[in-house]
Amino acid sequence: MPKVMEKLVYEYASSMSLLIVDDDQFALQEYRNLFENFFNSVDTAKDGLDAYNKWNLGKKKYDLIITDILMPNMNGFELISKIRLKSPSQHILVLSAIKDINQMRSTLTLGVEGILEKPYNQQTMIFVLSRVLKLIYNEKLIKRQAFQLKLLAQKNISTKADLKEVKEKENPSLKKKITVPIHEKKKVIIEQNESAVDFTSNLDYFDIDRVEVFQDKIEKYQNIACQIANENSSQTKTGLSKITQGLLELIEVLNHIGTFSVTVNATKRLIGFVDAIEEQHFEDYDKKDLFIDGIMSVLEDLYNWIDMVFVQKDTDNVNYFDASFSNTCLELEHIFESDISQDDDSLDFF
């Protein structure tokens, strides 16, 4: 069982960030060396004041804080209380040599998830971390799923609206057009035409060679999205710019071999929107997480579309991606819509 728990800790912590707080510099370095084996990112603080400044002003989100209690300048009790005023959901563990059960209860009333014994005990640490990291992981998973369900609901609403608006044309051999509402005032007109088999049969070897590298590039952008989840606001904006610019390059290749002008314009709009977001807005960690999850959804949808059209050749309408992609881009804008003011003219790319 200990080996299983240790493996779980490695898996959960590999994508998470940690802040360790202790006034004993020797112990602090030892903890850093230990936890760097588990966590993606590890920062240290010499006391509560240093920790609070890094947490509050450092513009970096920590998935977990592990803090000592008895420290100069600001002790652990004060640190936890100040953090709780701003973030009731911040996950915190306490480092303590407390043995008295009543003192332990007092510590737990601060709203911490657990106590790590001092001196360090490997088995206890693994047990406590496995429980807390699983909780953090599940919370992140629920957030991602909630966002994806929101996007799915939006698409279902659009699909139902489409069915009401589709009219049979006098000549059934003509292409059908579907009106896909993706904004209160804007609509995308999508031509429902080629199947994947017909679409790919028109490609030459040069086009196929270019498409084959798509999935590798998409995975590269997914990795960037994972990295910026735990980086500061400036690095987050830089990473998002790289992803959206890279997306545009891929979509423009698709537009060269097909008709995906709606997706091209939606991507250009998304680039402009990311450019317009001031770095400070990414300090709202909930919105930042939702935005990055949305970007991940866009990348995953594109990856799956490439597989369905060019590998499996298993869709009757290659242009379905236009509506899906554009809807998701607008949902991304809604996350920061109260922070970004845009002229109505900026919505007219459709």
Describe the structure in your own words.
By secondary structure, this protein is of the alpha/beta class. The chain has two domains: 137 residues, Response regulator (Rossmann fold), CATH 3.40.50.2300; 182 residues, no CATH class. Helices cover 60% and strands 10% of the residues. It is built from 13 helices and seven strands. The strands form two sheets. A five-stranded parallel sheet has the order 2-1-3-4-5, sandwiched between helices. Helix 3 runs parallel beside helix 4, helix 6 packs across helix 12 and helix 10 packs antiparallel against helix 11. The protein is elongated, with a radius of gyration of 25 Å.
- Total number of helical segments? 13
Strand content: 5-15%
Low-pLDDT stretches are: 160-192, 342-350
Tertiary shape: elongated
Alpha carbon gyration radius: 25 Å
Major beta-sheet overview: 5 strands, parallel
Number of strands: 7
State the helicity in percent bands.
55-70%
Could you say how many structural domains there are in total?
Answer: 2
Q: Provide mean pLDDT, rounded.
A: 76
Order of helices and strands: HEHEHEHEHEHEEHHHHHHH
Structural class: alpha/beta
Distance between the termini: 57 Å
Strand order, main sheet: write it out. Answer: 2-1-3-4-5
